[in-house]
Amino acid sequence: MSLQDDRLAVVIMAAGKGTRMNNPSMAKVMYEINGRPLVEWVVDLARRLQASRTVVVVGWRKESVIAHLARVSPSAVCVTQDPQLGTGHAVMQAEPVLQGFTGDVLVLSGDVPLLTEQTTRELIASHREKRVAATVLTAIPEDATGYGRVLRDREGNVTAIVEHKDATEEQRKVREINSGIYAFQAANLFEGLHEITPNNAQKEYYLTDVFEVFWRRKMSVAAVTARDPVEIGGINTPEQLEEARRLLAGRES
Fold this sequence. Notes:
alpha/beta
């Protein structure tokens, strides 16, 4: 009897350069906590979720990431994002590997070692129970400055995700933020990705633009809030890496 969840695939975005980590010769997701690269923590989470397929999107210094995952998680499939044209473009690279898959796709970042199995399972369970096109993992930090705000209607459905720089004064009072972690129905995800365009200053394909496609089609987007906002924190600086080490040590003690 298979212990796998045949209705679940995980896509991990791990192509980034990590400019602020101050070491251009190293992939950001290869920085270590307790002897394990960041990406390994996230791939291990996919394993504990019993995902039937795990796709890791690699890019910058990809050889080191591919070689490490071949040793520790040979069932994970690595796909290359080159050039790197945004989060939506990253997930597009997983489509060929997931051809014919009809379940749910959990999209994670390769630099979130603090994300827990419990929170992720709550996200997946809620997504399946509500039968929505997508579910966003959100958080409510003490200070939401700089984060995309999640706007909801009276029923609790997500109606918009507004980047901090684009938000009105009223919208900036909202403390609920987008984590960049999502659950999608596979068909909706890839159909939506086919419709997004890089019409922005960065000329990139943003994964969040998929939600605009859903809303135009009157499809629902739900949200689940992480119990602890530290779980959704990505690692972008050496200071954040040290803080994650400290928090993980606290969990294990």
